[in-house]
């Protein structure tokens, strides 16, 4: 089932999410719905806070990036085959010289900006079967993970922009939070909650 994606301005996007355990209710159904929601919105990542749940859970599937001709064949192959569920994730390390990449977010439609992030990460997480993994990632895969990880920390990519950039997009962000935007996927706007 495709779930509505929570728009910029909703308080759930600012909460530090909580860990979950194996007995989290209907987790398999939630994961299936989240993947369906992410694909329905043409996303490469989706975090639970983006569907209104303040829990430490996010998904990544970088296959859409594998078509990008700016990447080497090897990078395209990595991106094509990377699909992962991250539960109770904790980034242990971020290393290297920061690099810029133009990021967007399903909760902040039609806003894209260059964001600087470190190229390598080491992360500990549990998969959908609650097996614990510690892995290192780099490049675009690391960046997508960092973006989604920020969501479970209550951070948005717009927080990482310069003061000037923030001022330039302020009215666009206000319009998103009011629902004054056209999107081709289901969204829930903060103003909708107040009307109920």
UniProtKB/TrEMBL annotation:
**What SUPFAM superfamilies is this protein classified in?**
Peptide deformylase
Q: Which GO terms describe its biological process?
A: translation
The record ties this protein, via InterPro entries, to:
Peptide_deformylase, Peptide_deformylase_sf
Cofactor details (free text) = Binds 1 Fe(2+) ion.
User: Would the keyword Ion transport be found if you checked this record's keyword annotation?
Assistant: no
Q: Which residues bind Fe cation?
A: 105, 147, 151
Q: Which domain of life is it from?
A: Bacteria
Q: Which reaction does it catalyse?
A: N-terminal N-formyl-L-methionyl-[peptide] + H2O = N-terminal L-methionyl-[peptide] + formate
* Active site per the UniProt annotation: 148
Keywords in alphabetical order, please.
Hydrolase, Iron, Metal-binding, Protein biosynthesis
> What Gene3D superfamilies would the database entry show?
Peptide deformylase
Q: Does the keyword Metal-binding apply?
A: yes
Cofactor(s) needed, names only, are: Fe(2+)
Q: What EC number(s) does this enzyme carry?
A: 3.5.1.88
GO molecular function terms noted in the UniProt entry: metal ion binding; peptide deformylase activity
To which protein family does this belong?
Answer: Belongs to the polypeptide deformylase family.
This chain's function reads:
Removes the formyl group from the N-terminal Met of newly synthesized proteins. Requires at least a dipeptide for an efficient rate of reaction. N-terminal L-methionine is a prerequisite for activity but the enzyme has broad specificity at other positions.
Q: Which PANTHER family match?
A: PEPTIDE DEFORMYLASE
Q: What is this protein called?
A: Peptide deformylase
């Amino acid at each position: 089932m495709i779930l509505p994606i929570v728009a910029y301005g909703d308080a759930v996007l600012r909460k530090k999410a909580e860990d979950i355990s194996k007995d989290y209710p209907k987790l398999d159904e939630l994961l299936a719905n989240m993947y369906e929601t992410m694909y329905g919105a043409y996303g490469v990542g989706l975090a639970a806070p983006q569907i209104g749940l303040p829990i430490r859970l996010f998904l990544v599937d970088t296959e859409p990036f594998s078509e990008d001709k700016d990447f080497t064949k090897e990078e395209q192959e990595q991106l094509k085959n990377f699909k992962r569920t991250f539960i109770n994730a904790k980034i242990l390390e971020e290393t290297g010289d920061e690099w810029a990449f133009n990021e967007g977010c399903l909760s902040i439609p039609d806003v894209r900006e260059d964001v600087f992030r470190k190229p390598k990460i080491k992360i500990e997480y549990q998969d959908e079967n609650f097996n614990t993994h510690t892995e290192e990632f780099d490049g675009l895969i690391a960046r997508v993970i960092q973006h989604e990880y920020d969501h479970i920390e209550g951070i948005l990519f717009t927080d990482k922009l310069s003061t000037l950039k923030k001022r330039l997009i302020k009215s666009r962000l206000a319009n998103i939070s009011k629902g004054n935007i056209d999107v081709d996927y289901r969204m829930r706007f903060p103003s909708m909650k107040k009307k109920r």
